[in-house]
Amino acid sequence: MGKKLLNILLTVVIAGFVGYLVANWTLKRRLQEQEEVATVVSGTADKKSVPQRRVEVTNVANFSDAAESAVQAVVYVKVTQRNNYQQGGSLLDLIFGFPQTPRDQVGLGSGVIIRPDGYIVTNNHVIAGADLIEVTLENNRVYPAKLVGTDPATDIALIKIEAEDLPTVPLGNSDDLRLGEWVLAIGSPYDLRSTITAGIVSAKGRSMPNYDGQYRVESFIQTDAAVNPGNSGGALVNAAGELVGINTSIISRTGSYTGYSFAVPVNIVSKVVDDFIEFGEVQRAILGVSIVDVNAELAAQANLTDIDGVYVANVQKDSPAERGGLLQGDVIKEVNLNPVHNSAGLQEQISRLRPGEKAVVTVLREGKQREVIVAL
């Protein structure tokens, strides 16, 4: 009995001693950590003796290089329309026929320098009806501009100033744009010059409702980069600083940006500009078909297995399409190996070609894929 009690006492003593050692070591360690923290906060710590935590940030969008380069080639466009008389007037003016005061109308927009010898692309609606066009560069130099050509169908216009060695934006390839890709919109909204906003490509091949019945070539790049009045004619550039579109319009109930903006793809722009410089007007090819987008209802009616592409509803008599062998009921899938998903996409592909050129049109006919060569 006495021996058992002695063992119990020894166990208690040893446990107490071990507990004391552990508690003492823990206390010293905490005091040391507190001293290290205090030293770091006070800025007197030896950085080699204190482990430093480093947070690595990756895949964060940085557009500084693209923005700083592209903004040099985006200009401020001021247009003046003269000989517009102020409407209304007082009752005495109307009774006695006093002359009304002449009043100039001034419009504002943006433009993009595409050649160092002064060629600038903008929107047709920016310069429409202008008697005077004035361009202000990023360095605040002001030049009068002359109109080279306009194309209401694409809302593109080309103007020129007499200058040399101007900064330009390299042309990209709008076909290579991917959904979700970051882009920058550069322009002068509300007279805030050289404003840069960022967004992503929300959609491609968009078209707008056509209320006036005029011919349109629309296959817009849709983005959520903020665009407002004054941005029209400005640059849409990718993260590499390449021009991929010309900002043109917004969808809004208020007239200001509310979420979506639209740009003309640069592949359309470059062809229109080349036509202006080489021919003085746009050379536009015609296929000669009536088309509708393929949807689920049409696919069921026409026994189509794929809800994608453009359905040929009618082939015009003696048209390039008829001579090339296109048939009613064909579903156009590609033009020159470029995929076509809707009517806007088909218009875009044909608009890049000139009369006399040939196009390889890939169609789905009776469940089989065929290639038809059409001389436009």
Report on this model:
It is a single chain. It is built from eight helices and 18 strands. The chain is of the alpha+beta class. The protein has three domains: 1-30; 63-86 and 99-283, Thrombin, subunit H (Beta Barrel); 289-375, Pdz3 Domain. The strands form three sheets. A six-stranded antiparallel beta barrel has the order 1-2-3-6-5-4. The chain has a six-stranded antiparallel barrel with strand order 7-8-9-12-11-10. The longest helix has 41 residues, at 2-42.
List keywords for this structure.
single chain; 376 residues; Thrombin, subunit H; Pdz3 Domain; 6-stranded antiparallel barrel; 24% helix
CATH architecture of the largest domain: Beta Barrel
The CATH C-level name of the largest domain is Mainly Beta
For the sheet with most strands, the description reads: 6 strands, antiparallel, barrel
In the predicted model, the low-confidence regions spanning at least 5 consecutive residues are 36-58
- Give the beta-strand count: 18
For the residues shown, what is the average pLDDT?
A: 83
Radius of gyration: 34 Å
Shape, principal axes of CA atoms: flat
CATH fold-level assignment of the largest domain: Thrombin, subunit H
In which range does the helix fraction lie?
10-25%
Give the strand order, joined by hyphens, for the main sheet.
1-2-3-6-5-4
Looking at how many chains there are and whether they match, the oligomeric state comes to single chain
